[in-house]
Design goal:
The chain has 212 residues and is an alpha+beta fold. It is 21% helix and 35% strand. It has five helices and eleven strands. Strands 1, 2, 3, 4, 5, 6, 7, 8, 9, 10 and 11 form an eleven-stranded antiparallel beta sheet that branches. Strand 8 and strand 9 form a beta hairpin.
């Protein structure tokens, strides 16, 4: 079991966007049960998937195929995915869920397993000291395993959809993308003692002030 965990999750990548350790999860999927999803393709065709979920290792779409096996969907032709409680849009190679909207703009969040923190947890765990972290353990992934007996640290990565463009929620990145007449409001909001780059309410308030 522990080796399977490593096979699945020890892919460490550097995050260049604002992120936070949100909480731990005992699931590698967003939803406990697979459920229907409406997938909108790039040509705006909508395909209904009876049993789907979000794989939190890469924040990608997974589904049950005809034989009942879990399959990871290729996102290159996917525009958005809608579950009953969340709307997801593809950002690069990930699915980001819409936290809220401000006019025509929106705050999106990618919730993923924090692979760097997970790797450190495994290395620091007394029960894992005898497991070799070789390159061979980093090249295989499987979706069809039961791993609900392990705590996975989660990370939130935020993006703005601002004037129809995707902007990583980073101070410098946002400042250079917004109109000059919004920069004063930007500085006022981000200098407030209650403002946090990892708090959705703060980020929505900032988006409100820099939106038309």
């Amino acid at each position: 079991m522990r080796k399977i965990i490593i096979l699945l999750l020890l892919f460490v990548c550097a995050m260049t966007t604002t992120a936070q350790i949100d909480k731990n999860s005992r699931r590698i999927m967003t939803y406990k049960e697979f459920k229907p999803a409406a997938v909108t393709l790039l040509n705006n065709q909508v395909v209904t998937v009876p049993l789907a979920n979000i794989f939190m290792k890469r924040s990608t779409l997974v589904y049950h195929n005809i034989s009942g096996k879990n399959m990871e969907a290729k996102l290159s032709n996917v525009k958005s995915v809608d579950f009953d409680d969340r709307h997801y849009e593809r950002i690069d190679t990930m699915l980001a869920w819409r936290v809220d909207t401000v006019g025509n703009n929106a705050l999106f969040c990618v919730t993923k397993i924090d692979l760097s923190a997970l790797r450190n947890n495994i290395i620091n765990s007394r029960s894992m000291t005898n497991i070799e972290l070789t390159n061979s353990l980093l090249n295989t992934a499987t979706l069809d395993v039961d791993m609900e007996d392990f705590d996975y640290p989660l990370i939130n990565i935020y993006f703005y959809k601002y004037n129809d463009k995707i902007i990583p929620v980073q101070e410098r990145e946002i400042y250079r993308r917004i109109p000059k007449n919004k920069r004063y409001d930007f500085k006022v909001v981000t200098s407030l003692p209650t403002f946090s780059w990892t708090d959705p309410k703060s980020l929505l308030d900032l988006l409100k002030h820099i939106s038309d």
